[in-house]
Amino acid sequence: MKIAQTILGLALLQASNAFVAPGLSNARGVSTRIFEEVEADTEIRGAAEISGLTGDVEAIFDTEEVDAAIPHRYPFNFVDKIVEYVPGKRAVGIKMVSKNEDFFNGHFPGRRVMPGVLQVEALAQLAGTICLKMDGADPGSIFFFAGVDGVKWKKPVVPGDALVMEVEILKFNKKFGLVKATGKAFVDGKVAIEVKEMTFALAK
């Protein structure tokens, strides 16, 4: 009976320690406080103000409209919405990077980083939303990567990041269905990736 009471007491002590702040204990080593007080001069902006930072950024194409524009689907669709769009010329789109992405299971365990090649793919998909709406792109057409040049990665892209991408069409050869584009993407206003030139081939 005494052994059972001892085990129960240890279990309760462990459970109580799971909810207390470290470094706060009495003479017997038992924690006496659950939360530290927030200092009065700590600046709290609040959810409403932080959310409002993007209040004037409206979606030109929401996620369903993006799905209607390109053939890519989960888990290989990397454009969540488009916020700026000039037909046949340029677009700005956003990819919200979630820790639930399949590729994070292996890249890398313990230090999740969005693979650089998938950042290039995200830019290519954004370019595809322009290409597949251009004159000469028949309904049901798809586009293939034909080449990429001048790729530079500037900073890691990790879970929780909003990857804000911009692509611009440089050339379009309607006869052969070839498109050349350039692009870059930002996280928190800093360049994450630059691509000097991407080449695509449109196919039915």
From TrEMBL:
It comes from the Eukaryota. The keyword Metal-binding does not apply. GO terms for cellular component: cytoplasm. InterPro entries: FabA_FabZ, HotDog_dom_sf. Keywords: Cytoplasm, Lyase, Signal. One of its GO terms (molecular function) is lyase activity. The keyword Signal applies. Gene3D superfamilies: Hotdog Thioesterase (3.10.129.10). It holds the Pfam family FabA. CDD domains: FabZ. Coiled coil: none annotated. This is Beta-hydroxyacyl-ACP dehydratase. It comes from Entomoneis paludosa.
